[in-house]
Amino acid sequence: MNKPQLKPEQHKKYFRRSLDLLPGEVAVFDYSRLTILYFALIGLDILDGLDSLTDNRKKDIVEWVYRLQLVPNEYCSVHKCGFMGSTTVIHLKNQPGCEKYCESNVAMTYMALCILITLGDNLSRVNKSAVLRGVASLQKSDGSFKSNYEHGESDLRFVYCSLAICNILNDSSSINVNNTIKFISNCLNYDGAFGQNPGTESHGGSTYCAIASLSLLNKLNLVLDENKSRILERWAVNRQTNGGFQGRPNKDPDTCYSFWLGATLSIMGSLSRINKERNRDFVLNNANLLTGGFSKNMDSIPDPMHTCLSLCGLSLIGEENLNPINPALNITVRAANYLKQIQGDYTLPNKNIFKADTEC
Amino acid sequence: MDDQNQEHKSDGSDFSDEADTLNYVLYRDRPEWKDVQPIAQDDGPAQVVQIAYSNKFSDVFDYFRAVLKSGEKSVRVLGLVTDALTLNPANYTVWIYRLEIVKHLKVDLHNELEYISNVIREFTKNYQVWQYRKTIVEMLNDPSGELEFTADILDMDSKNYHAWQYRQWVLTAFSKLMENELNFVDNLISQDMRNNSAWNQRYFVVNNSDPNNDVINKELEYTFGKIQILSKNESAWNYLRGLLLYSENGIFEDKVREFCSKLYNKGNRSTHLMSCLIDLTDADESTNPENVEKIKFALKLCSDLASVYDPIRRFYWEYISKDIELKFNFREHDTKIM
């Protein structure tokens, strides 16, 4: 049998279609369209396909993202600041009495910043101090973070997004880092991997969130001593089954875990322990050669998330013609280098916000 | 994180049921809504990740936008919000507004619990529906039906992460419910010994009971029993190793080592058994013959795993092999991996 081959042009087309118009069946993403934008642009960047977007198109996307930013004013307290995931309730921006229904979400803020960096925006119009204060207001006493201010749920996903935002904005002074680390440690299970919350089952996605978070804080060794690293490494390596990776023991493999587990092992410096060839075959065999895009397994249709994360997984194991990614931030190395460059020019124009305890 | 984006149930009611669609009247055609001016989604000048919404979807959300702005909290808005949540249960804002209406109208919370039960049955892997249920149960301060409800959902998919996470919250918030949890877990493990979620729940229960050595010994025996039936089951082996975290002065290690050796000597070559034996190598750096044998045995296990029993992880076992040599400063060996 011939080895499967990556068809970059088809996947670029798939992403460009997703950037324009999506079918009504995905209306459940109406409130989080930014996630689709994120997967499409990061994916395009990995494929080295951002040049296929015109400068005007890139500018339009940047403007669309900035419209989702909530900044502090008399109608929006600083707790709600950051980015919304869509335009669903954007009409409430600056509406008296509507603050409760118009708020940012920390996963959307993380993705918005990644999109802007990827498109070469220097974040000068991000109200950085307000975003950081918004993130801080989501932290709970156990160290975890909520997704959003009003009744948001909390788990390792939002810990990761919060820390990624602090890392991108180069300032973690507004959050309680020690409590965050305690929470992450409390999610470590008897089998050596991490669950979404203390006590819940170990999972490839939450394990990535834990390891990437600790790596962004430069505190990997604080939580994982040599013995614990070894057990986690074994748990992660054991997730490879039938070539691909599963998210939990005794579950079926799914392309996205080639990223979640691949990136975990990459951050730990242990990616060489897996069988890259079989992982590659599994992922490439889930590419749809008619429409472009990748699905989670043979029984599913492609979606932007699995397409992007499949490419991320392939990039990690050194697939030719794919740009390398930064596994902790999940943007390309090119974008991460650009981030380093603009971080030197950050200023904090609204410093007084940190002192204001009352709502604006 | 993965579950969030892939496992929302697509909106069947909007597309599949022709008859429903025929009888359904759009809000803009309902006389009792004539007083409300719908508000279209404002996407700005550029079209980015646009969704080709159905007429029904746009109509419901145009009216939802209007009532959000006016702040109307009425029975008819509760109906509108119910429609909006059927179309998109992943919209946080609609849930927040629903809660406000429920509080404002003093809706019977038991009815609301029944409503959210039905929604969860349809969208079992959506985060917001479980979060809303938690809020309602907190307001009721009555968890009496929660274990039964989550058991029902787990009956549909015994590895549903959301249901397990919620169940743990119930057991933690209302701790007297923990009494029968081990029986529940036992049942699930008996039905499917590979159910890793059930093994995790077992650890959760045991760990929360502040177990003494007798309890751990009982758990070891239980796990040995399950492994003897299905020795390739990683979940049971992970649990076994988890129990060793309670071991002080090596008291449980000896027992596990003895169990593993017996199984191995009977000819069992489960990769997890071999891996566990490697972990339990009780060698040191000395060069007496007995010690050298122990190290050689561990290296042989690595070699057999890499070449015969677990070749997909060949590179891993080669690395572990080198690690053992390094750890015990072992040089004069002849058990090299081919």
UniProtKB/TrEMBL annotation, chain A:
Tell me which residues make up the Prenyltransferase alpha-alpha toroid domain: 6-331
Among SUPFAM superfamilies, the record links this protein to: Terpenoid cyclases/Protein prenyltransferases
Bilayer-crossing regions:
none
Q: Which reaction does it catalyse?
A: geranylgeranyl diphosphate + L-cysteinyl-[protein] = S-geranylgeranyl-L-cysteinyl-[protein] + diphosphate
If you read the UniProt record, what top EC class would you report for this enzyme, in one word? transferase
Keywords assigned by UniProt?
A: Magnesium, Metal-binding, Prenyltransferase, Repeat, Transferase, Zinc
- The yes or no answer to whether the keyword Nucleotide-binding is present is no
Cofactor names from the entry are: Zn(2+); Mg(2+)
| UniProt xrefs under Pfam families | Prenyltrans
**Source domain of life:** Eukaryota
Gene Ontology molecular functions: CAAX-protein geranylgeranyltransferase activity; metal ion binding
Show the InterPro entries listed in the entry: GGTase_I_beta, PGGT1B-like, Prenyltrans, Terpenoid_cyclase/PrenylTrfase
Entry EC number(s): 2.5.1.59
Quote the cellular component terms of the Gene Ontology held in the record: CAAX-protein geranylgeranyltransferase complex
Family from the record = Belongs to the protein prenyltransferase subunit beta family.
Quote the subunit structure annotation: Heterodimer of FNTA and PGGT1B. PGGT1B mediates interaction with substrate peptides.
Record's protein name: Geranylgeranyl transferase type-1 subunit beta
Q: Which organism is it from?
A: Acyrthosiphon pisum
From TrEMBL, chain B:
Q: What enzyme category does the UniProt record give?
A: transferase
Q: Which InterPro entries match?
A: Prenyl_trans_a
Give the residue range of the signal peptide.
none
**CC annotations in GO:** CAAX-protein geranylgeranyltransferase complex; protein farnesyltransferase complex
Record keywords, A-Z: Magnesium, Prenyltransferase, Repeat, Transferase
Q: EC number(s) on record?
A: 2.5.1.58, 2.5.1.59
Q: Name one Pfam family in it.
A: PPTA
Does this entry carry the keyword Protease?
no
Which family is this protein grouped under? Belongs to the protein prenyltransferase subunit alpha family.
Q: What is this protein called?
A: Protein farnesyltransferase/geranylgeranyltransferase type-1 subunit alpha
